[in-house]
TrEMBL record:
Its EC number is 5.3.1.24. InterPro entries: Aldolase_TIM, PRAI_dom, RibuloseP-bd_barrel, TrpF_fam. GO terms for molecular function: phosphoribosylanthranilate isomerase activity. GO terms for biological process: L-tryptophan biosynthetic process. Pathway: Amino-acid biosynthesis; L-tryptophan biosynthesis; L-tryptophan from chorismate: step 3/5. The keyword Phosphoprotein does not apply. It comes from the Bacteria. Keywords: Amino-acid biosynthesis, Aromatic amino acid biosynthesis, Isomerase, Tryptophan biosynthesis. This is N-(5'-phosphoribosyl)anthranilate isomerase. Belongs to the TrpF family. HAMAP family: PRAI. Residues 5-132 form the N-(5'phosphoribosyl) anthranilate isomerase (PRAI) domain. It catalyses: N-(5-phospho-beta-D-ribosyl)anthranilate = 1-(2-carboxyphenylamino)-1-deoxy-D-ribulose 5-phosphate. It comes from Methylophaga nitratireducenticrescens.
Amino acid sequence: MRTRVKICGITRRQDADFAVKSGVDAIGLVFYEPSPRAVTMAQAAAITAQLPPFVSVVGLFVDATPEKVLQTLEQVPLSLLQFHGNESAEYCAQFNMPYIKAVRMQTATDLIQAANHFSGASALLLDSYQQGVPGEPDRPLTGP
């Protein structure tokens, strides 16, 4: 098995270029407006316009409406969806795209149950938990 590297929260074309030159397999674009790393559709289009063909583009969403995800898919060439909110397995699967589901880790979190519930996911991402705040994408797990 090969380790793949994704840099998430890319907001500028030059950062995507640097990540690609550094050998990343994927870049992540945040489509969650409250995040300081959120991108607009225009930014996302500019960032992805000149990416090499084997660099995946991951779109990160938090409790987005299906219309928002579909609109993004129409305008940005996403390879993979990443969900960080309270999305159900049915919600995640409706886009007919590979997806990653973030699981906010708490003492009572049952990863076996989460893996079974999201059996259609390409992967589960173990995310930190902070009361009332969606997990910051790709932060290291600091405990419950």
